[in-house]
Design brief:
Strand content of chain B: under 5%
Shape of chain A: globular
Oligomer: heterodimer
Distance between the termini of chain A: 21 Å
Largest sheet of chain B: 2 strands, antiparallel
Order of helices and strands of chain A: HHHHHHEEEHHHHHHHHH
Shape of chain B: globular
Distance between the termini of chain B: 55 Å
Largest interface: A-B, 45 and 46 residues
Number of strands of chain A: 3
Radius of gyration of chain B: 19 Å
Strand order of the largest sheet of chain B: 1-4
Strand content of chain A: under 5%
Helix content of chain A: 55-70%
Number of helices of chain B: 11
Strand order of the largest sheet of chain A: 2-1-3
Structural class of chain B: mainly alpha
Structural class of chain A: mainly alpha
Order of helices and strands of chain B: HHHHEEEHHHHEHHH
Number of domains of chain B: 1
Chain lengths: ~350, ~290
Amino acid sequence: MKKIRELNSFTRTNIACYGIVILAFVVLYPLQSAGLISHSISGQLVPICTYVVMAISLNLTVGFLGELSLGHAGFMSVGAFTGVITAISLAAAVPSPAIRLVIAIIVGGLFAGVAGLIIGIPVLRLKGDYLAIVTLAFGEIIKNIINCLYVGIDESGLHFSMKSDAALGLSDMGRVIMKGPQGAVGITKTATFLSGILLILFALFIVLNLVNSKTGRAVTAIRDNRIAAESVGIGITRYKLTAFIISAMLAGMAGALYAQNLSAVAATKFDFNTSILILVFVVLGGMGNIFGSIIAASLLYMLPELLRGLADYRMLIYAVILIFVMIATNGTRSKLIIAKIKSLFRFKKSPGEGAANI
Amino acid sequence: MTFISNLINGISLGSVYAIIALGYTMVYGIAKMLNFAHGDVIMIGAYMSFCATTYLHLPVPAAIFMAMCVCTILGIVIEGLAYKPLRRATSLAVLITAIGVSYFLQNIALIIWGSAPKTFSSVVPFGSLRLFGGELIITAESIVTVLANIVIMVGLAIFTKKSKMGKAMRAVSEDKDAAELMGINVNVTISVTFAIGSALAAIAGVLLCSAYPVLMPTTGAMPGIKAFTAAVFGGIGSIPGAMLGGILLGIIEIFSKSYISTQLSDAIVFGVLIVVLLVKPTGLLGKKIAEKV
């Protein structure tokens, strides 16, 4: 009996997650093509999709692996810039923008995954706040290095420099792709709302299947009690690293999509504040709750846009809402009040549901 | 001579980091939380001092005192309104709330003072010190910063070792529940810690803006992050660790700026931090805690 209920709750989560994304697409896509959505909102559709993917991928690290990462935007950055370089290099060879976008996303994901591997091996030895600070440091290092990086392309291939665009030594036919602090320039927009939705579905497919697999159970076991997990023979490093790399790859893919939606993007876009923004989505949506991440990322990303009428006060109100929601959902006293309201409605959590929504 | 001059600049910048790091490390030691809004308290302190001298025409010591008072009250209010309800919540929930407070302070400053940078006039009325026939120039700001750092360190060391409140702080940081059973008022102790940390942040803000005279709502953010890494570098929760971490971080930053690359200095600073944490995962002076099974 218990087993059936657990299975049900997993399928329920799956249906809810896929359902809401497909529903959003079915409702918004015709409206967008008919031009019924205001310009400012339709321009936000692809960024929202990328931030939903970012929230899903960070939830894997923070919610399921239980490790606080403050540098997730770094992986997004790696994916964004490798994706841009790939897309521009292939501009002549691959005429179809859709295929170019897919290749850019895959390459961005792979490079971010490699970055995740390089960072994960040393970082995952640390615990708690120390791990958080090292991921923060890695995010800043990635930002700093990309900020000094000049990349150009001509018929003999890619050229890299840390000094200036003149030092690239390009031929007359060449063009500069990345100009240090200015970032990547001259990107052809290839991202569409449809590609964003497909990427979300892909991320959901990966993460939901991973979480419900043997690997996923090992990962949550490590989160709940590392020592106990180790003592029953779970290889801590292997599983932690697997989850971390997958999380980094998805972030890189999201970054690649994000950059393909802009004409120019600089490394400073992916700074500490962006990492924090994604973390806020994950924590407010509920750690380990993928459905919550999707909702929180889309609503919170829209919130400053919706508050635009309040001009200068909008970020202030955003901050107040953030503090208020955190206290309301986590405070000792407010928790008691919520528990009382729940008991009034005789709301009882089944054990299976509790396990799925930690 | 450039080496000595760089070293002095490094120690001076490091002293500012050390004073900010103290705020992080004391709050972490006692409330076990990362107070990400600390960097923005620095900014508020600097703005207060700026307003007191520019608009109210107060003398410098009075301006600094006013900045300290405002920041102290601000620290206590922030703790009481935003962090106290979350005393038993997960550290991540408190972290996000602190980030909310940080956004709040930055945007309040943006509304009150605008986004245009203000030029902060130095609070130190002396000129630079010229040694060896003008070959070595030490700015008065550096000297004052280093002296202020030493005074604060000695003062805090005496305070935590000798005074009743200092002992209560150490007890709470050791074991909160046991301290409560011994009759220590934990809430008051935590409030006092925030008050001291915020008053120090005001001093750090004034010193920082005297040396680098550009004041904006985001002025506190980067020094805040760096001071936080300095606190972790030295071993978070340890007061001498904050001092050591801050000064080392300042020296590394200035040296990598002048000898390696200006643009990559942040990457180098954070790179050194990572190497230190990998070799010594609890920081330079951090305690190693055995894990209970």
